[in-house]
């Protein structure tokens, strides 16, 4: 059966070789449209005939447009599918959050899925229908079913996207939306999408049935102009918020021009042109929030901000106004222990990890009775030990806890035996044999050796202390549990000397604190101090909405603080004290100032060897430095004087030299670049 609908009338006229004007083409296409409607009527009449084949009946059904009735069940199925997918995405997000998963990539993906939950199923349906529609080659009224269905899905996508766009605009402008304002916004976006639905259906049908004809192009032009007007009308209700968001993209010098432009009615007609610019800004903000939990991004953003504000380590450190920080406030952030203050505890999970290993040994009295904790100075090893011992003493009072702070530098075998014998109240002159002999009659005992870096010197003949400890910990005991803490640089050196696998099997490497933990450390102490926290103007983004100004300044400050302290709480406390000043009962935080590594490079190679020795041992005297560096004493003393004058090192009351907290990471980074450390 021949095709009833004549699709090529205008094309035949164009291909006759004669010149036809625009009026003739329009006249021919009008005739074509009349033939289309005539063909539809004839198709319905043809369906009443009985003497037709199944193939002819199928063609007549498609040409009659009868399949368009399927749009109702298709619409219902699409809404059901979108609801199922959206609920699944929300449920997946809630499960990820409720399980406390800390993997940053998984949490970021969960947030992305939650944000895409309403739109994602409709976008998927639109893509799949487009792929299926591309395989349809015969244009007829029945084949327009997919076209109409696509228009409906596009209507839903535009409605949801417009609602999200306007909500983002209001949020970006700092406008608070009440329930009535939100309902009105949803009503306006839905109404605008409905106004666009019928014209889009008309242009889709015209392009499908008429192809790239003149009438189809005229309809397309009219529809786009109408759509532009509808979008402009919708946006004009929120042009003040649009302008506030637009100002965030440009410097403040452009504000007077934008203020003049927004008053003209002609500006309403160009509002749709702002959509791509604002979308780019929203995408940037979205990805900024998406990556905010990643350590590399936090560090990168903090360093980029330092570059922009020219406040890197080259800043004059003398500008830190220590004298304007009152002692009443400063004592809450002192790194020295104050028994009068009950400071908040930030649980990083270290004490729980120690307790888990101990409970496993205590339950079975296995051979794994040794655990070593290694980490950087000031990372919280001692505080975790205190919480661990307090917990054990409360839960198991019968267990004896012996804490030994190893004196510096206890490097001989006899000194180790005497130290342990005094603590355990037994004669340790026979070494491991004495422990084995008394083990059966001993009450379960935890022996804590704190500051184990004091058991050696990096010199031939001064490693016996550590070797003696290894002999004791490798002795099979049922009632002694060894808990050893050591500096990470000292542990790295000992691993290179004795071999990592021949020392301790259970090793906990303390991780650096996250930005969230550093923030909790500072803000909890500030809250207890009773002072009101404010931020310096340099940290405040005046172009951001008022509602998010304080939050953004706080995020920017703690990104800078965390990057500067490298996750060490002691360094964070020092940097905090150097970056704040008090005014009455207010405290103002500015950019944390970091020491410059260029000053380290000026000291010369000999002083770098002195720094490397101090970092490896954590603390040394002048005599010990002479031993481990094999340099002359006058050279050592000159190097120490230079470092003391530069405030890179400090000499304690015990005569031992240590790297200062603020300079520690700068010194370590410089030594690592020269390959002078073991980690």
From TrEMBL:
Pfam family, one: AAA_22
GO molecular function: ATP hydrolysis activity
UniProt keyword annotations, A-Z: Membrane, Transmembrane, Transmembrane helix
Keyword DNA-binding on entry: no
Chain ranges of the ORC1/DEAH AAA+ ATPase domain: 366-436
Keyword field contains RNA-binding: no
Transmembrane portions of the chain: 112-133, 145-170, 191-210, 222-244, 265-287
The name this protein goes by in its record: Cdc6-related protein
Species of origin: hydrothermal vent metagenome
